[in-house]
Amino acid sequence: MTDEQVVAIVEKLYDALGREDIETVLGIFDPEVVIHTPPSLPWSTGDYQGLEGAVKYFQGALEACADTVFDVEEIHPSGDWAAAIGDWSGTSRASGRGFRVKFVHFWTLRDGKIIKAEGISDTVEIVAAFD
């Protein structure tokens, strides 16, 4: 895949996340996708396998957070993967408190689908919004 193709797929993913369009998100993932997230996130168990795992993670996030925005500042492609850097904001549905944190997401692709996702965020502020 070209760098432009990788960037286009990652941009499509963030667009779908912004619209809470889980069907489109799942269409971008390979059926065997592996997702690694910080287990400190209030809705996360850390690791998820396959589309079933992706559904579990994203449903948990949507149920826990409102007004979620990923403000992607940069996407750095490199062959079959890309790093996305930006700000993530949202509101805890449970407490009504908001958060805004930096993130770095790593996306690994094969045949136009995401096969691995890993997110790194400053989860302290997110956890505080849920306390």
Short note summarizing the structure:
With 131 residues, the chain is of the alpha+beta class.
Number of strands: 6
Q: Strand pairing plus helix content: what structural class?
A: alpha+beta
Tally of discrete structural domains: 1
Report strand %. over 45%
What Rg do the Cα atoms give?
Answer: 14 Å
Helix content: 25-40%
CATH topology: Nuclear Transport Factor 2, Chain: A
Mean pLDDT across the residues is: 95
Write the element-wise H/E pattern from the N-terminal end onward. HHEEHEEEEH
- The total count of helices amounts to 4
Ends distance: 43 Å
CATH architecture tag: Roll
CATH class, please? Alpha Beta
* Biggest pleated sheet: 6 strands, mixed
Gross morphology is: globular
Low-confidence runs: none
**Order of strands in the sheet with most strands:** 2-1-6-5-4-3
Give a verbal description of the structure:
The protein has 4 helices and 6 strands, in the order ααββαββββα. With 131 residues, the protein is α+β, with helices and mostly antiparallel strands. It has one domain: Nuclear Transport Factor 2, Chain: A, CATH 3.10.450.50. A 6-stranded mixed sheet has the order 2-1-6-5-4-3.
